[in-house]
Amino acid sequence: MKFRPDTFTIMLLGAVALASFLPATGVVGELLAVAGTVAVALLFFFHGAALSRQQIVDGASHWRLHILITALTFGFFPLVVLPINGMSNFAPSWMPPDLGLGFLYLGVLPSAVSSSIAYTALARGNVPAAICSAAASNVFGMMLTPFLLLLLVSSAGSGDFAVGEALKDIVLQLLLPFAVGHAMRPMLGGFLGRNEHLMARYDKCVIWLIVYSAFSHSVESGLWQNLPLKAIVLTILLCIGLLALFMFFARFMVRRFGLSLEDEAAVVFCGSKKSLASGLPMAKVLFSGHPGFGMIVLPIMCYNQVQVIIGAILAQKYRDKIAESKLPGESQ
User: If we measure between CA atoms, which residue out of 125, 124, 86, 92 comes closest to residue 105?
Assistant: First the structure.
């Protein structure tokens, strides 16, 4: 299989490069920050309007898969990254505190909906379960992620995170727009359902804006002076190691539960992936104005690219195994 970076990946790398050489500063930077705040609020408003109540109910119906994926996403992952954060005595010597905070944040993010479902489908796995579990992860993740982050930051002993301000921003910029949007679903749901491609483009535009604005702010605060090339390379390697660990543990747990190979594919992809689409907008709210924002979101961006490449390889392997298991004489 040949891998070429998709257009959106190139756009994100372009945003980082543009911010590195032509950062938005002064009045332009302030206007971009305001635009980003409004764009994120609208993003969650639209997602609230697009999500049906039946999707929320369906998320709880496949309870064994749902419990396992939730435990992997919001339990096992955060516990593993907690010791390696920049404030811990176990943190690597090369890891700055803001980068460690980024790994904590990565640990509490919900599952990536689109890629989890796409790779489960490519693997010929249990697609309905993947849809329900990934969607439920994101619905509940919007509430769980901020509070798990606050809990982990408190455990790590970081004093740079304003808990009260973060809680206020969560309510005003995430939960309130989402609730208002969901209340307006009878008026907007049909239009959004017919124009999902427009929503996808808007999501990508918001993420691009957040990345450019965040890295502009961080470059002005000395991002590249404080983050050497060695730390970037080791961050990528750590992301590869984390993804491999969670995929292996997901397979182990599925087999302990005695689930099918199709279910295993769904759990591996939904339980190990982390959402860039949800993570960056929430980070814009949680870490607004933080001088180390670029460093904080670096693990999310690295992990996202790693999971795309490794996920595609693994999906093809699952596809072959599932096809073989359905051949005459192979079924048990």
Answer: 86
Q: DSSP assignment, residue 84?
A: G
Is pLDDT above 90 for 165? no
Higher pLDDT, residue 323 or 173: 323
SS (H, E, C) 94-110: CCCHHHHHHHHHHHCCC
DSSP string, 196-250: HHHHHHHHHHHHHHHHHHHHHHHHHTTHHHHS-HHHHHHHHHHHHHHHHHHHHHH
CA dist 294 and 16 (Å) reads 9
288 to each of 162, 169, 268, 281, 282, how far by Cα in Å? 10, 9, 33, 10, 10
Asked if residue 299 lies in contact with residue 228, where contact means CB atoms within 8 angstroms, the answer is no
Q: Does pTM surpass 0.90?
A: no
Rounded CA separation 214/36 (Å): 10
Q: CA distances (Å), 65 to each of 78, 92, 195, 264, 319, in order?
A: 19, 34, 30, 9, 20
pLDDT at 243 over 80: yes
Token couple for 6: 């998709």
Report the distance separating Cα 45 and Cα 86, nearest Å: 34
Coil, strand, or helix at residue 17?
A: helix
* Radius of gyration, alpha carbons of the chain: 20
